[in-house]
Fold this sequence. Notes:
With about 280 residues, this protein is an alpha/beta fold.
Amino acid sequence: MDRLPYPSPRQRALLTPLFRILRAYFRAQAHGLEAIPSDRPVLYVAKHPRCYLYFETMLLGVFTFFDDPGLPELQVMEKRGTSLHRAPILGWIRRNMNTIAATEDGAVEALAAGRSVLVFPGGARELFGPPDLIRWRGHDGFARIAARARAPVIPVAIAGADRQHPWRLRLGRRNTLWLPPLPLPVRLDYWFGAPLVPPPADRPDAVARFADDVAVHTQDLLHVAARAREAVGEARARLPARPGLVCTPHRVPLTRSRTSLPPGPGSGSLPARAAGAAGPRRPGR
């Protein structure tokens, strides 16, 4: 049976108003969209947000596919069968977010079919870990996926994603209550790094080193995103309170000049990291 295109007219009609509300609620901005290739699928990698509703993940899909037909369709790798999937409203939303099961074979198949994939390599380590800290040691499946599919990797940083629920309460060994239950209206800034070309899949040592390099790039991008977010807040705080004067952050245009990579992967060398990133910082494990 052929796979139906996403989104269907019904899905688009129901999801578009939700996405517009979320984008306004979080004042979401995107930076570096021009780095995303338009001529092939990519593997997006990001720190797992400290939240449970995944509204920020929906908005990432808006920036990288839903609102831009020039980019390949995006599918999100996720763990299936959770309590959220069985919830009356949230369950329908999760089932209609174009997700795939979190398996390497499933991701490779999606990329081979021309669809981009988003993965959070840190999983529950980062869901319950410190904010803005990459913890990918031993979780290098994303690098094997990229190498097998010959797909470039795009590091993503979502500044503010770990500030939506300042508190959490453990309920037994398996359940967590996030507080407040609904996320705070924090500003979300999405930063996209330069494409990183994986080595050949038949070089496991090089693939493992590539996984570490991608983690470093992603952690650096998180530092850049956090500093930029703090700078906007400081600028607002210094602004004199005067009637009719409003301070707004710099908005990055969403129009872009497309980035095209040369056909096929290179020798495994990595392009320069995102502009503005500092020297390498080894992420916390």
